[in-house]
Structures are given as structure tokens and as C-alpha cells.
Amino acid sequence: MNAPATPSDLSDLSDGADGTVFNGTVDLPRIRRAVREILIAVGEDPDREGLLETPDRVARMYAEIFSGLHVDPRVHLKRTFTQKHDEMVLVKDIEFSSMCEHHLLPFMGKAHLAYLPNGQVVGISKLARIVDMVARRPQVQERMTEELADLMMTELNARGCGVILEAAHTCMSIRGVHKPGAMTMTSAMRGAFLASATRAELMALIFSTRR
Ligand SMILES: Nc1nc2c(ncn2[C@@H]2O[C@H](COP(=O)(O)OP(=O)(O)OP(=O)(O)O)[C@@H](O)[C@H]2O)c(=O)[nH]1
Ligand SMILES: [Zn+2]
């Protein structure tokens, strides 16, 4: 069996076997071939009119929703500016959708990102940008939560940070255990947010104003 292709393998290639061009990071022709195989395996006819373009659509879709594998979210946290503000900064209700690595089905919900600045703050949109980037990978919710916390803590030189994700997993609703409405909550606390008072303040800011 061939070793899985890495981004650097693919970035050297300009054309796929069927003459189409790679986007530099994702092997689109390979995905097309695989989707065609899946259609045959489930008993479909990939040559019927409605399915003719499906392998290509799915390939382009995966290139989009897994684009976070080929980018470094730290770029968004490089530009900080001096601002006296010793209290918590929280951006809450950042909507995201990601892909469960066990079933390749979406999980989607909201991310809440908070940090305690250390003389420098970052543009608030950048916190939403790192959520978007990290979300576009196959993963489990716990890892996504931890990665966001580590990114903020390290890149912002923060005194502390807290990340809370709440998400619905379609692998738990449309199949398997069939529990639509179940929400999975995960949190990752670093530095000053490990103190119960700071953690409690964060929870109150996120959840107490909700109807
Ligand atoms: N901890 C965690 N588990 C997840 C996440 N996404 C999916 N899962 C779970 O991953 C597990 C995979 O379990 P398996 O027994 O290997 O797979 P399965 O037979 O398809 O399991 P069922 O979903 O129970 O039908 C399931 O319990 C999923 O609910 C996630 O983000 N975090
Ligand atoms: Zn799943």
C-alpha cells in the first residue's frame, strides 16, 4: 500500500493522472477516484446523470473543509498591539463547523475564547480566524479545544486563557446512537484560568446572559 501523500509530496505536482491540476495541497484527482469507488461500493451507478459531477464536487468540498491541514493559524496572532487592559477579553458565540475524524461527519457549534492580556492585545477578529482555521481539519472536539488554548497561550504571551466549545455531532444524530439535540461541551484552561474564580467569571460571562 502506498504511504499517505503529504502536502509536500503534492506541492511538487502540477497535474493529476486525469490531466487536472492539483490545488497545491489536496490531491483532487485521488479524491474523485475514491468517491467514484464509494458510489460503486454502495450500489450506485456513478455514470448516471445526477452523479456524474459528484466526485468532482466532493473533491472540491474536501479541499475546502480540510484546508486547515495546510495552514498555520499562528499567522493571525502575530500582530498584537500595546493596550492597557488587565481584565479578561472574551469573544463568545463564534460559530464553527468541523469534521469528526472517526466518521468524517460534521460537528458544529460555538466556540468561546478568552484570555488575560499581558500588556498586548490582539484584534478580536483574529480569534474567530483561528477558530475557522483549526476547525477545517478532521479531529475530535477535545483536541480542537486544546489546540486553540495552546495557540492563544503561546502566541499572545497571555497570563491565562480559556476555551470552551459546545457542539452537536452529526455522527451522534443522523446515525449510530441517534440522539439529535445532544450537545458536547469541552473546555481547556491555561494559566490564571485554572483558578476557580477566573473560571467562574468566564462561565458567567458566557452562559448567564443566555435565554
Ligand atoms: N471523545 C470524542 N468522541 C467522539 C468525537 N466525535 C465522535 N466521537 C465518538 O467516537 C466514537 C467512535 O466509537 P467506535 O465504537 O469506534 O465507532 P462506532 O461503532 O461508529 O460508534 P457509535 O458512534 O457508538 O456507533 C463514538 O463514540 C463517537 O461518538 C469527539 O469529538 N470526541
Ligand atoms: Zn463521529
Automatic annotation (TrEMBL):
Any one GO MF annotation of this record: GTP cyclohydrolase I activity
Keywords: GTP-binding, Hydrolase, Metal-binding, Nucleotide-binding, One-carbon metabolism, Zinc
Record-level GO BP terms: one-carbon metabolic process; tetrahydrobiopterin biosynthetic process; tetrahydrofolate biosynthetic process
Residue ranges constituting the GTP cyclohydrolase I domain according to the UniProt record: 31-206
Gene3D superfamilies: 1.10.286.10, 3.30.1130.10
E.C. number: 3.5.4.16
Listed InterPro entries: GTP-CH-I_C/QueF, GTP-CH-I_N, GTP_CycHdrlase_I, GTP_CycHdrlase_I_CS, GTP_CycHdrlase_I_dom
Pathway involvement of the protein, from the record: Cofactor biosynthesis; 7,8-dihydroneopterin triphosphate biosynthesis; 7,8-dihydroneopterin triphosphate from GTP: step 1/1
Catalytic activity: GTP + H2O = 7,8-dihydroneopterin 3'-triphosphate + formate + H(+)
GO cellular component, one term: cytoplasm
UniProt xrefs under Pfam families: GTP_cyclohydroI (PF01227)
Residue positions binding Zn(2+): C100, H103, C171
Signal peptide: none
NCBIfam families: folE (TIGR00063), PRK09347.1-2 (NF006825), PRK09347.1-3 (NF006826)
Quaternary assembly: Homopolymer.
Family, per entry: Belongs to the GTP cyclohydrolase I family.
Protein name: GTP cyclohydrolase 1
Organism: Tuwongella immobilis
Gene expressing this chain: folE
